[in-house]
Amino acid sequence: MEKTKQPAGWEHEAWEKIVRKVKRTSERIGDGFPHASVNGEYVLEPAHWWTAGFWPGLLWLVYRDTKDERLKAYAESCEKQLDAVIAGFDRLDHDLGFMWQLTSVARYKLLGEDESRRRALLAANLLSGRFNVKGKYIRAWNPWRAGEDNSGWAIIDCAMNLALLYWASATSGDPRYNHLAMEHADTVLSHFIRDDGSVNHIVIFDSASGEKLGVNGGQGYAPDSAWSRGTAWAIYGMALSYKHTGEIRYLDAAKKVAHFFLANLPEDRVPHWDFRLPPEVPKHRDSSAGACAACGLLLLSELVGETESELYRKEGEAMLYSLYTNYGAWDRDDEEGLILHGTSHFPEGRNIDVPLIYGDYFFAEGISRLLEHGELFW
Known about the structure:
mainly alpha; Glycosyltransferase; two-stranded antiparallel sheet; 13 helices; globular
C-alpha cells in the first residue's frame, strides 16, 4: 500500500495547530470531562465516566511544551474532582488506569507532586482489588443494572490500564502490582489475541471457577469480528507490558497484532471501526483507533531492533500524517474536536462519525512523541 510522502516539518505544524486549538477550546471546556463532540461541541460527562483522564492528559501534553499555567490549573482541578470518584467507589471499574494514569501519574512525572503519587497508588490498589485469582483477569465493569452479573467479564481495553500497576511497582518498590499486571497480560495472550492477530473485545469467565465460558462482540460487529479500537488497545497495551517487564512474549504479541492491523488498513491508513464487516454494514472510520494504534507503533519502534524499528515508525507516522491532513478540524471554529470521524459504539448507535476525546489525546500524544517532548505518561 503506497503511502503519501510527508513534507519536512509537518509534525511541528501539526503540534502548533493542536496547541492553538486546545488553548481555544479550553476556554469553554475548562476543567470539565469531555467525551464525544456533538454538533461541534464536546458533551461533558460526569467525573466517574471512563474517559475522564483524556482531557487532562491532553492538557498536560500541551502544558509540558508551553508551560501555560491556565491549562495546568484546569488539569489539576480535573484530578482533584476525581477524589470524589474514589470516595464514591461504586462507580469505579477497570478504567482506573485510563483515569489516573493521565491525571495523577502525568502530574507526578511532570511536577513530582507527592499528592498525585499517593492518589495514583490508591487507584492502583483499587485496580488490584478487581483481580480475580481463579480466572487470572481484572474484572471489567460493575453491574449496569439491578440483577446483572458481569463479574466474569474482562475486556481488551484493560491491556492499557495495566500501565498503572507497572508504574505502582516501579514507584513503590513493591512487586505485587507487577505480578497482577502480568497475570492479566498473560490472560490477554491466552484468551484475547487470536492466532491471526485479531482480538476479542470481551471474554467471559465463570467468576467462581475461572473457567472460560465464551466471548462477546462488545463494541465490535460480532463475537468473531475484529473491532479496530480493541486491536489498537492490544498493540499499545502489549507493547507497554513489554516495555515495563522485558518479557519477550508481550513484544511478540504486540507485533503480531500490529501486523494484522496494518494488513487490514484502507488506502488512507485510518481504520474502519471493525476490520470484518459484511457488505451491508456501514464502514465508518474510527480515527481514535488509528491514533491509538499509531502511538503503539511508535513505542514498538523504540523496543525492537534497528531493522524493524524503521518499519513501525514509518507506519505510525504515516497514520498520524493521514489523520492530520485528512481528518483534522484545525481551522473550524464550529468544531471543538481535533480529529474527525471517530466511532465510539456502533452496535449501540452511540457517537458515530464524531470526534472523540481519546482520539484527540492519542493524536496529540503521537505528535508529541515524534517531536520527542518527553517521557510517556503510561
